[in-house]
Design goal:
This protein has 326 residues and is an alpha/beta fold. It is 29% helix and 22% strand.
Length: 326
């Protein structure tokens, strides 16, 4: 992650009270407004990440206001559905909360002779949530590994089944831990598996949920609950806890600053993939939608949904690459 390309965040207000967080993320004031001079028609179909579903819907609504003759469709069944949809030409936009896997890129290239085009559109911070009354001070990856997986690939060879195994006392000592995560279609499922579980398999007892909202709601009503979800899905009945990658590292909260400077270990980019022949310009409908996503209006939608908007410098770099034709 190149921090120099990201939003400086000079005046971010980030409030942490009773374990919940609320971010007010300013959009780079130098970003251009979305403007277009052409009347478009055609189809814009999106298949992919449900983490980006709300954002895609709002981008779509804004796009339709400017281009009412473009037919738009959105399906959000998880990041793993995006590569297949692009390959089968069932979509021309593939939002993903992770990078495509090598096997997915390979399958795409085998059909088209070139790789899919990856476009970063925002940054996301994944938070670890517990019940609002849980007093745990923080966790490290080895702890998450022993909660969500029993393969111990992160090095901690101790089963963690109750909160007492993590040092809690009193009524918490024998409180059973209930873990909630995403299902296999989700890009976040794979991201956490690779990043926080050291590629260990999820335990059978981990509840696989359809979306982030379900995870935070279940943690809110489960005294022993723990789950991961985007910062955009917090509520007053859950508590966000500090995290560190390994022992010896300082526990930090998932503020935008900590995400951008990489002090918080679970920050990531969110992407949109397109099928673009590098010897040809980007198709007009897709190009206009990309311009909207990376405009001031598009990034305000990112910010209003609790994600981290991109800087002008990064957006300029992305647009410059997309304009290049080999």
């Amino acid at each position: 992650m190149n921090n120099k390309l990201l939003l400086p965040l000079l005046s971010i207000g980030f409030c942490l009270t009773t374990g919940s967080a609320k971010a007010a993320l300013p959009v780079d004031s130098t970003l251009p407004d979305y403007s277009t001079t052409s009347e478009l028609s055609g189809t814009l179909s999106s298949v992919g990440s449900d983490s980006l579903e709300k954002i895609m819907q709002q981008w779509q609504a804004t796009f339709k206001q400017r281009h009412p003759n473009v037919q738009t469709k959105i399906k959000a069944k998880g990041s793993s559905t995006a590569p297949k949809a692009l390959i089968k030409e069932e979509a021309n936009i593939g939002p993903m909360s992770r990078k495509m896997k090598r096997t997915e890129v390979k399958a795409f290239k085998e059909k088209y002779g070139y790789k899919p085009t990856k476009i970063p559109v925002a940054m996301d911070t994944l938070a670890i949530y517990v019940h609002k009354d849980n007093p745990i001070k923080g966790l490290r990856f080895a702890d998450l590994d022993s909660i969500f997986s029993h393969e111990h690939k992160c090095g901690k060879h101790k089963e963690i089944k109750v909160w007492g195994d993590l040092g809690l006392t009193g009524k918490w000592k024998n409180q059973t831990i209930h873990a909630y995560g995403r299902n296999k279609k989700s890009g976040t499922y794979g991201y956490i598996k690779k990043r926080a579980l050291c590629n260990g398999a999820y335990g059978k007892e981990v509840s696989q949920e359809e979306n982030f909202e379900s995870i935070t709601k279940k943690v809110a009503v489960s005294l022993g609950g723990i789950g991961y979800a985007s910062m955009a899905y917090q509520n007053k009945s859950v508590r966000i806890i500090p995290m560190a990658k390994s022992r010896g590292q300082k526990l930090v909260l998932p503020t935008p600053e900590n995400t951008l400077n990489r002090h918080y270990p679970l920050g990531r980019f969110l992407y949109v993939y397109i099928n673009r022949d590098p010897t040809k310009p980007v198709a007009e409908v897709e190009w206009e939608f990309i311009k909207l996503m990376l405009s001031k209006q598009g990034q305000e939608i990112i910010s209003n949904n609790g994600y981290i908007p991109l800087s002008l410098k990064m957006i300029k770099k992305t647009l410059k690459k997309l304009k290049k034709v080999k």
